[in-house]
Structure formats: C-alpha cells, structure tokens
TrEMBL record:
It comes from Pseudorhodobacter antarcticus. It comes from the Bacteria. This is Rhamnan synthesis protein F. Pfam families: RgpF (PF05045). InterPro entries: RgpF.
Length: 379
C-alpha cells in the first residue's frame, strides 16, 4: 500500500502541474523562439548593452550585481554597492531594466560600470553576460561575487570577510538541500546547492575548465523553472561534481545543532518569532506556546517541531530571529510567496520588540512597505 504522506505529495505535485499547464502552453511559442533570440543576443554582444562608466576602479576583487528595478533604484541597493566597495570589491552593476539618468548617476558613484541589457535570462543570463564582459576586459579576478537584488541583507566588510574565511571554491550565504520526505518529517539529502542570490567564486574556480565550460554552454531562458534547474542548482552541482569545494555561511544542519543547545525560554522565543504558511504547523506552534516551557518533554516536542518545519521551509525564513542570532546575519527574500511575507513580518516584529538589531533603516523601511501594513502588535 502507498504510504499516505507519499500519496499526498504526489497529489499536490499533480495539482501544481495541472495549475501551471495554461501558463506553460501560453509561453510555448516564446520558449520555442529562444534559441534564435540567444543567437541574436550573442551576435550583437556587447553592442546590445548600454555601458556607463562609474567612479570605482576595477580591482582583483569584482562583484557582478544584477538588478531588476524598473521603477527606480532602491536605497538598499545603493547601500549594498557601498558595502561591496568598503569590502574591497568593484561592483559591475547589470540591470535587466532600463535605468533613468538619475539612477545611472547614483550608481556611477559606487560602481565600476553600470550595464543595461535586454531583460532575457533572469539573473543567470545577466551573470553570464557579466562574466563574459570581465573576460573580454582581460581581467582574472582573485575573487568574484555574483549577487542579485532578490533579497535584503546588509552587505558589510564584516559579512564579506566571514564568507571569504570559509575558504571554499564556491561559497555563499545559504546552502540548501533537497529533502527526502517521510512520515517523520523528512531527511535532508546530499543533493545540495548554494543559493544563487549570493555566490563567491575563488580564483581557482574562475580559472577552471569546468567553470568556463558551464558558462560558455549555459543556455539563457525566460522559463523560470529551467533557469532554477540548469542555473542555480545546476551550477553548484556541476562544480561539486568537478571536485570543487562548496561551503555556505549558513545551513540547516548547523542551525538545528545550535538550537539543540539553547535554553527552553529561548526556544519559546524562537517559536514566538517564527513564520508559517501552513495552518497545521502554525496551530502546532501556538499549542506549544500555551504550555509551560519546562522539562525535557516540552523541549523535545519543540525541537521536533522546528526540525520538521525547516525540512519543509528554509530555516532562515521559517525562524528569522533564531537564524540571525545563530549566524550573525539576517537575509530575507523579496518573494511575494506567503512564507516569505510572513518572515518579513516576523523580522519586523523582532526589530520593534528590540530583539533584532535592524540591518539598516533603508532595509527596514523597504520591508515595512513590502508587507503593506504596520508591524503587527506583540503577541
């Protein structure tokens, strides 16, 4: 007999496939024309790019910073560029949207170059063009950062130093693993990757044939699932298969190990500032918070609840307060999905209650605007 959890998983997968069918059919023509569009893009490169020189001199440390902000550059983006410069990196800003004259002038103060390109291929298409441009300049970076604007994080020299100290060929902010689901809440596998909104490339990896082969052969696409599979996930796994080391500043295992050593009252606080998009887990957390935070029985139930939840959602999103305390850095995705919006609300509550040191006033203001409401009251 098929286990109930597996049947439920397959039914959910079938539902999602059926729901996405109209969109897949509607986008079929555009996807079929992509090979021709890729050839045209590469044939016109770099004449099809608008390049604005900035005031930062290119250095052995470069950062390709990809933006899609058609309504104007966010203050947090300018702060990120300043943080990169303070950390010794020269930003190469690549915009997948047309910039205004005023935004070009602002970015020129804190970058080596600003490049406007056709909106094709998402962040990995822009990463590819940035890498190609660096090569054509004859630059061999000692360190390269690939970063996009899909997340909020205070980029500081201290944070950059922490990731550099990992001393890996490919590193970043967060390591994600595919979870093998079961009735006990799932188990992470060795199918891992570094999430691509923040990637650090070593000089050794830059010079490697595997790195060059990946980017020379990468096929840009506006079909997002394929970009994730062949870009974000594919890049990490191909570099790992080629023998290069992958390490992230944060990962699920370290998060759970750290929480297993904290006191019960702190675990209680972890639950109070958690984020949920599943009513079953939300109700479970509420029930645990009604119980006295005493004894091993309560503690074990909480740790099991946290383990099962982070096997379903990213730990830094599910528990932004705890993740920030454990790793010394907070980063939040800009996605409109319910779980990410809930994480932003939880983070803002932590800031309001004095439990989280805000990353910056600009980031807090943008977070508050993104949730389109006043920070919820304490509970």
């Amino acid at each position: 007999m098929i286990p109930r959890w597996k049947l439920k998983r397959e039914l959910v997968r079938l539902r999602d496939q059926i729901a996405s069918l109209p969109q897949a059919i509607a986008s079929l023509h555009a996807r079929l024309s992509e090979p021709q569009r890729r050839r045209a893009h590469d044939a016109a490169f770099p004449q099809n790019l608008r390049v604005t020189e900035g005031k930062i001199v290119p250095s052995p440390r470069l950062a390709v910073v990809v933006l899609f902000q058609p309504h104007g550059i966010a203050l947090s983006t300018l702060e990120s560029c300043k943080g990169l410069v303070a950390g010794g990196y020269a930003p190469l800003v690549i915009s997948n949207a047309i910039l205004s004259d005023s935004d070009r002038a602002l970015l020129a103060q804190t970058c080596w170059r600003t490049v406007e390109r056709p909106n094709f291929g998402y962040d990995f298409g822009a990463y590819r063009d940035g890498i190609r441009m660096i090569r054509e300049q004859g630059i061999t970076p000692d360190r390269l950062i690939l970063m996009n604007d899909s997340f909020w994080c205070a980029i500081t020299p201290e944070l950059l130093g922490k990731i550099e100290d990992l001393d890996a060929d490919l590193s970043g902010l967060l390591q994600d693993e595919k979870v093998q689901h079961d009735t006990k809440g799932g188990k992470p596998t060795q199918n891992l990757h570094i999430e691509s909104y923040c990637l650090f490339i070593s000089a050794r990896l830059w010079k490697a044939e595997a790195f060059r082969t990946f980017w020379d052969g990468y096929l840009m696409t506006n079909f997002k699932p394929r970009t994730i599979k062949n870009g974000e996930i594919g890049f990490s796994r191909k570099m790992k298969a080629a023998g290069f080391s992958l390490i992230a500043l944060t990962n699920r295992g370290s998060f759970l190990t750290a929480l297993s050593n904290v006191a019960n009252d702190e675990l209680q606080q972890v639950l109070r500032y958690a984020a949920y998009d599943d009513p079953v887990f939300r109700s479970e957390a509420a029930a645990l918070l009604l119980l006295p935070a005493e004894g091993d029985a309560w503690r074990n139930k909480v740790l099991d609840h946290i383990r099962r939840w982070v096997n379903r959602r990213r730990f830094n999103t599910a528990f932004p307060l705890a993740s920030g305390r454990i790793f010394g850095v907070s980063f939040l995705k800009k996605s409109h999905e319910e779980i990410f919006a809930a994480a932003r609300v939880a983070y803002l509550r932590g800031c309001e209650d004095g439990l989280i040191q805000p990353a910056s006033s600009a980031i807090v203001a943008e977070l508050a605007q993104s949730v389109s409401s006043v920070v919820p009251t304490k509970r």
